[in-house]
Amino acid sequence: MLTELETTLLGIMMMVIMLGMGASMTPRDFRIAFRKPKGIMVGLLSQFAVMPFLGFLLAIGLGLPPALVVGLLLIACMPGGTTSNIFAYFSKGVLALSIMMTTVSTLVAVVMVPVLLSFYGGMAGVSGDYAIPPGNVAQILVVLLVPTLLGMVLRKLNPNVGATIELIGSFMGIVVILFLIASWVPRNYQLLLDTGPTIYAATIGIGLIGMLFGYWVARGLGQDTNRSRTISLETGIQNGPLAVLVITLTFTGVMQQEVLLIPVLYSLFIVLSSTAITLWYRRNATREALARDAAKLGAG
Amino acid sequence: MNTITPRPWLAAYGQDIAPGLPAPTHRSLADLVAQTCEAFGKRPAFTCVVPNGMNGTLRFSQVSSMSDAFASFLRHHCGLQPGARVAVQMPNGLGYPVAAFGVFKAGGVLVNTNPLYTPSEMIHQFNDSGTEVLVICDMFTDKLAEVIPQTGIRHVVLAGVPEFFPRIPETIVRGVQKVWSRTLPPVPPLEVPVLRIRDALKIGRGLPRVTDWDQIGPDDLALLQYTGGTTGVAKGAMLTHGNILANLEQVKAMGGRHMSGQDCVLTALPLYHIFAFTANLMTFFALGARNILVPSPRPVQNIQRALENYPVTWVTGVNTLFNGLMNEEWFAAYPPKTLKAAIAGGTALHHAVAERWQKITGTRVAEGYGLTETAPLVSFNPLDQDVRIGSIGVPVPGTDVALVDDQAEPVERGKPGELIVKGPQVMRGYWNRPDETEKTLQNGWVFTGDVAIMDDDGFLTIVDRKKDMVLVSGFNVYPNEVEDCLSKLDSVLEAAVIGIPDKGTGEAVRAYVVQNPDVPEQVTKEDVIAHCRKHLAAYKVPKSVLLRDDLPKSPIGKILRKDLKAEARAEFAKGA
Description:
The structure holds two protein chains of two kinds.
Chain A: H1 4-23, H2 27-33, H3 38-61, H4 66-77, H5 83-90, H6 95-123, H7 134-157, H8 159-184, H9 189-194, H10 197-220, H11 225-236, H12 240-250, H13 253-297
Helix pairs in contact in A: 1-7, 1-8, 1-12, 3-4, 3-6, 3-10, 3-11, 4-6, 4-13, 5-6, 5-11, 6-7, 6-11, 7-8, 10-11, 10-13, 11-13, 12-13
Chain B: H1 29-40, E1 44-49, E2 55-59, H2 60-77, E3 85-89, H3 95-105, E4 109-112, H4 119-129, E5 131-137, H5 144-147, E6 155-159, H6 167-180, E7 194-196, H7 197-205, E8 221-227, E9 235-240, H8 241-255, E10 264-267, H9 274-287, E11 290-293, H10 304-309, E12 314-317, H11 319-326, H12 329-333, E13 341-344, H13 351-361, E14 364-370, E15 377-380, E16 394-395, E17 400-404, E18 417-422, H14 434-440, E19 441-442, E20 445-454, E21 460-465, E22 470-472, E23 475-477, H15 479-486, E24 492-502, E25 506-515, H16 525-535, E26 544-548, H17 561-575
Parallel strand pairs in B: 1-11, 3-4, 3-5, 4-8, 5-6, 6-7, 10-11, 10-12, 12-13, 13-14, 25-26
Antiparallel strand pairs in B: 1-2, 8-9, 14-15, 15-16, 17-18, 18-20, 19-20, 20-21, 22-23, 24-25
Helix pairs in contact in B: 1-2, 1-3, 2-3, 2-7, 8-9, 11-13
């Protein structure tokens, strides 16, 4: 398990990430986003309807033990991670939509995550010691909203400080994952070797299937291909470090190690799978742009 | 022509504008800079904002001491003699005023240079002007290896976009430029010394202060402002301290009652262009106002944080900038509340754009007219009355204008004629080009090459460039009129019109249109032609319509018809 020091460090790093997220926008960006809220609504739908349901299906279908079910469900119910914004940028997606979806889903998560977790947890038969008290999640999220708001305020007061924090925040997303690798993997080396392929399939699958569904839900609801790709990445990329934090603050000892397995693996693999998907999306975006050009030239 | 023209426009001056032009209050720009800085001391003079909102500010007092140091560096370290040329080649940033004002204080002549010039354009301009010292943005040092050995440049000074920002943001922006966008090439080994501007200032601070700029008078050369890129080789318009100071008074005469030291002006147009140079860098600065410098307004999103974070009261812009801003949701939905008015120039402001601007922002956009050769302002819309959209206003105080035919004889009132201009802002001529000077400057009148009409109140309307006119079966078609009509189509973002050879009519009208990305329906050739048929006489309707992703533009966003013409020429040469 993570030592107290490590848990505290993780908490601080999460604070920095959220501070950076807050600093990435201004109140006006919010107002603008909600003038045409459809994209965000579609995003929320895929984030909080599609993903948790997928997580539930995977958990049941693969017949996972309760510790892993909890981990998987938790990941599935998480809001979008801030790293999704970097991937949205590289995939030539709609950056503003990505930032907004991350922020809005984090806000909505205060209510939605506890509700979804107890609902799907109950359906999957998670009970007793393994159940995450809904209050815990809500509390952590509320605590994290404080730095988010602070980030926004700092941005407003001093754009230099705001933009600097934004940058540090997005780097911190990577640092957290490195931190998890360094602190968790060596101690659980054997556990990783003993872990069967189904578990790996579940951790990698939840992200990829989420992206697939996110894309088609968005397309089905009338979003264009570029926005759909952004929503797709946003759906598949969950806030893994937040899940880790929730677990370390809820469980202890061996139980913590077990429950952590899927969120930690997810956090590692999502970086790899998002990179692959981003490259693919980027190619599609370029191809579409070229096709549009060709269509226009023909109209002379 | 020497006849003194009556000034029918004086009545339009109204209460707001004094008909006589006050004598300049300073003998030189160096004098003006020194006194302005002294008067406004600790107030912010220039703030540079990069797209993510990071910024740096120089106070008037800092501008003063830094430009002093730069002058000392130029004079004592580089051995610059009064009257010698210094080229400044950088996008808007805090280094610009420090370098430019330093050049004036050292008694040098500023050669404004477009940072996007190719090495051969740079070599031409530096050799033609006899440039001795080059201050260049560090993003463009890769061109130096080729340029420097072929010129007489003795010293190179580098300034960055985040120059003089607080240390942390400066380091971050520079890091992003270096690692992420890879826009900071290494400095090639050169035969001449290369210094960063911070180091140059450090050297300058240790040298005696230059104080002999009280020797500089209004007739001394201040700027070699290169122009004529639209017709072959660029030539340097010789603008004196007196030209710029007179034009500054003229700007103040027209708008001064609405401008003050409390203002904050958005400077998204490049300072190396004469419009922003005189209007923003000199006039607003001299009033004690704050300039918000945006290094690159493209994409137009880059301006968002600048407009959000500062109480911008004035915007200077060109048609494409206003149009671009209004097509951004963040601007159209929440235009800056502090805005008082906007000044348009550089190129024709389209009706549709002006009207939309007034509707969206609730403020006026007043169109002015000017050219490099007149430092630049010639005419402007008086701000105390309703702006006459489409008109470039009335001549500014102290300026005479006339409209003449091909024999340089005045045309009848209400008839189109070439606009000619005389006044204290008129340049001395083109640097080392007596033949070109003779063609443009006759008896103190500048022949602008623009065709205009004057109404009974003295308001001028530009019809078009003389040489851009399209002759369809003997009828004159002015591209501006057709472009203005095209821009009223919602699905059209922008348009350009040129003439192409035509067997039947001699020349025919061709339109290039760009789809408005915010409008779902695709613009078609048929729509465009049907729309023009409704609003224009048959001979003005484009015969050919081409859809483009974008149009060639000059650094300030003027659409370059000459590039389209060259393209068309190549096309027809091949096809014929």
